[in-house]
């Protein structure tokens, strides 16, 4: 039954793998998963980790990304995703869902959910999407308190606490670099600078910050879409593709639904659908059947 109902790899081992990956010299690629099945696919294809985006989770609930989701909702969905994969899962924890004490509780809840790491941002609560205008950031000292609270609550030393700063688009890159230094001093393991515009911006950050860095390659935002190889050559340690799988799925779903509405049948869409056999392969139906068959055919020995 190992690896069927839940991943074979323990949460502790996933955290150790994530931390090791961040200092391996090989960039860790973490596509976003909008459900557990997508996480299964991410692992099968060969990526190094899985990301759970706050924007995607909000959208999945039919809500905008403006801080409406709760810790319970985010942790619950993240636990479902982490359960099925042997890869480390990094979760978007927004601003920590409240004051510094809330950020501390968020770390403990995410640890209990089997997550490998989370990121906290320095936006004013409630936050808004990092690639929209009109954001506001808290004073550096407030974010330092948020981070110190999170770090103090950590029980597994390998649980990665990432500090995200949205200051580059508000106060400028130099101010964001200064904040990153303060966040590293507060105990952050990883720095995520939101909405950098081009390779030169990423290079400037890498030159100024000594700890691991994460890049966000989200589509239709403010950042130039750089390849993982380019980011690795600059010296970045991790990259997320937060909304890519949801955008792909929703585009396909909308096109298909419109055709069904107009044509009255899905028969012209079959070559754009995942076949039942492929879905069953991902779900490992055969292994479940074998397991169930073993139970059904099990008999007690004569002397038992």
From TrEMBL:
It comes from the Bacteria. PROSITE patterns: ISOCITRATE_LYASE. It is an enzyme of class 4 (lyase). The keyword Magnesium applies. GO terms for molecular function: metal ion binding; methylisocitrate lyase activity. Its EC number is 4.1.3.30. It catalyses: (2S,3R)-3-hydroxybutane-1,2,3-tricarboxylate = pyruvate + succinate. Pathway: Organic acid metabolism; propanoate degradation. Transmembrane segments: none annotated. GO terms for biological process: propionate catabolic process, 2-methylcitrate cycle. Its cofactor is Mg(2+). Pfam families: PEP_mutase. Keywords: Lyase, Magnesium, Metal-binding. PANTHER family: CARBOXYVINYL-CARBOXYPHOSPHONATE PHOSPHORYLMUTASE, CHLOROPLASTIC, PHOSPHOENOLPYRUVATE CARBOXYLASE. Belongs to the isocitrate lyase/PEP mutase superfamily. Methylisocitrate lyase family. Catalyzes the thermodynamically favored C-C bond cleavage of (2R,3S)-2-methylisocitrate to yield pyruvate and succinate. This is Methylisocitrate lyase. It comes from Nocardia transvalensis.
